[in-house]
UniProtKB/TrEMBL annotation:
Organism expressing this protein natively: Paracoccus seriniphilus
Pfam families associated with the record: CutC
Assigned protein family: Belongs to the CutC family.
Coiled-coil ranges per UniProt: none
Domain of life: Bacteria
Cellular compartments annotated: Cytoplasm
Gene3D superfamilies membership: Copper homeostasis (CutC) domain
Gene name per UniProt: cutC
InterPro entries referenced in this protein's UniProt entry, alphabetically: CutC-like (IPR005627), CutC-like_dom_sf (IPR036822)
SUPFAM superfamilies: CutC-like
Protein's recorded name: PF03932 family protein CutC
GO molecular function, one term: copper ion binding
A single Gene Ontology CC term: cytoplasm
HAMAP family: CutC
Amino acid sequence: MRHSQQLEICVDSADGLSLAVAGGADRIELCSALALGGLTPSMGLMRQAALAQVPCHAMIRPAAGDFVLREGGMEAMLGDILAANDAGLAGIVIGVMSPDRKLDAAALSELIAAAGNMQVTLHRAFDLCRDQFAALDLAIELGVARVLTSGGAPSAPEGVSRIAALCNHAAGRIEVMAGGGIGAESAGQLLGAGVDALHASCSIADAEQQDCRGIGIETRRITSPDRIRELKKTMADWSAAR
């Protein structure tokens, strides 16, 4: 019998972490600056997350932009992996590419070795690879636990056909987690594609934030436990119908 697909929620704040756990997230992707695609969280947030009742995996991404290493980038990532391990987190989330739009196998191998017993997720740098099937094979060879993908499309619902093909290619050798623009309305078609997990923010605008737009600070988004519960119910209903 197929296992139940899990729901991973990405957060970038201490209150977001608490709200995600309260909503029933199965796993947390811990970040800073989700508006920039997610950067490495602070050591303080990592330590808080290690006390949570669900596994928390830290994004290891020292700078915004693409996923090609710049000067000092490897040293920063290795240091952040050490911090995540010292904090007691369950895993890390990484992705490094070469300029020719392939995964940087040498860099990833070094980072994975540094992770030790922590689980490793390959993030959506994967979606920028010219050959995603070759990238999936490399991730399996390197010992990555799961890959996060939208099928190379702007959102997972748009890339569902490619995601299904990737799941078929993976054949249980690695977890495939769909992410990007996922809500309760699109969960069924993605679960039907064969994914092992869904990844979402389930966020809404923070209605309690003071208006800071006068100094160029936009309204932040905050995790919605209700949206998590809605998505979890949709997932449970889909599984029960099978």
